[in-house]
Amino acid sequence: MIKNFFPNKIALITLVSACLVVFATMGLRQTFGLFSNNFEVDCGISTTEFGLAIAIHAIIWGIFTPIAGRFADKQGGNIITIFALIFYGIGVFLLGNNFNTGAWFQINLGLLVGLGLAGAAGPIIASQVTKHFPNENRTKAAGFVTACGGLGMFVFPIASRFFISETTWQNTFVIFSVFLLLMCIPAYLMKRPQTENSNNNNTNNNNKSNDDLIPVLKESFAHSGFRLLILGFFVCGFQITLVATHVPRYVQDRGLEDWAAFAILSLIGLFNIIGTLLMGYLGDKYSKKILLSGLYFLRAISMLVFILLPASTISAIAFGISFGVLWLATVPATNGIVAQIFGTKNLTMLFGIVFLSHQIGSFLGAYLGGLFYDIFGNFDYVWYLAITLSIIATLLHLPIDERPIRREATI
């Protein structure tokens, strides 16, 4: 069965390497909210300033993902991923070495971490991997990559709590930065598909128009389904960044112990593995747009129940589990729809454009969460906004036409 799934050895090596990289990059990103109190007490960073830094790295991540994707589609993604890991590692290292106040805080957690995520996080890595697989296995391949990101989200919050208790929060960032730089080794092993290399070597003037940027963008934006995916993914970004950034403060304000925040983020990571693998399996069998609509509806229910129930350990655990199943399960299905409609030739760039909308949502989820908290003294209004957006996303995905627009999309 494994032989039937992997087209060749390069596909196997690329998938395993990608899983290692995403484990580190997505796992570490899940921990920043856990340090918000440390930043406030030791560095004088307010909730709004912290939210702004997360918002900046979200928008930098989004802006540079299509650019990195275009480079990856043309030249291969391993080089851009290595540079991204170096930026990420430097930013995290400096956060633990007194470059964590004022403008330095925004540069490191905002700019450098954002550049790192743009070239080395799940969305761009998943797109590089799915190029190796036929249409019937693409969503599953993306699901494996995203699930490893979920494993990192489970492990890193636990590791953060351990290292903070054994050393300091500053040393914890230093340790994480070293781990990120080590990921340059598997990143180097992420190769392009052999068929794509062959096609590029034989490119001539007759097919050059398929490779030009402007025709590709015109074709994609002319498709109503692509535009709807862009709008829907905005909601995903708003919700998950709101939760990852501000839930630690939210549960503490509601009277729960600090460990409840670690538990929620770890459970989200753990059950994200189940959710993404399940979506990967279902997405290759059923309509991806229907699966996405159902996912956003269930997110609205999960958030509504969480904020309405009395604060308790049980409600915190239930939210971590339920929202975890729905966390990044959007990625395999959304990536799969883009590949199914447009093919894989420009997949990394096109999914990067969809992901830019996700990161605009992330910017607002992080920043508005902190701003609303400082203005109103609670997160209630931003929760209501997140729930409303979820209902809108449920409806947005239903009209999407998933049919391929050219023969390449079915290969």
Description:
The protein is mainly α. It has a single domain, classed as Up-down Bundle (Growth Hormone, Chain: A). The protein has 19 helices and no strands. It has helices at residues 2-5, 9-29, 36-43, 47-75, 78-95, 102-120, 122-130, 135-166, 169-182, 184-188, 194-201, 213-221, 224-253, 258-283, 288-308, 313-326, 330-342, 347-376, 380-396. Helix 18 packs antiparallel against helix 19. It is globular. The two termini are 20 Å apart.
Give the SSE order as H and E letters. Answer: HHHHHHHHHHHHHHHHHHH
Query: What radius of gyration results from the CA coordinates?
Result: 20 Å
Q: What CATH first level would be assigned?
A: Mainly Alpha
Helix content bin: over 70%
Low-confidence stretches: 201-210, 407-411
Strand content: under 5%
Structural class by secondary-structure content: mainly alpha
Named CATH architecture: Up-down Bundle
**What is the fourth-level CATH superfamily?**
MFS general substrate transporter like domains
How many domain modules?
1
Distance between the termini: 20 Å
- Summed over residues and divided by their number, the pLDDT gives a mean of 85
**Quaternary status:** single chain
Specify the overall morphology: globular
* Helix segment tally: 19
CATH topology annotation: Growth Hormone, Chain: A
Largest sheet: none
Per DSSP E runs of 2 or more residues, the count of β-strands stands at 0
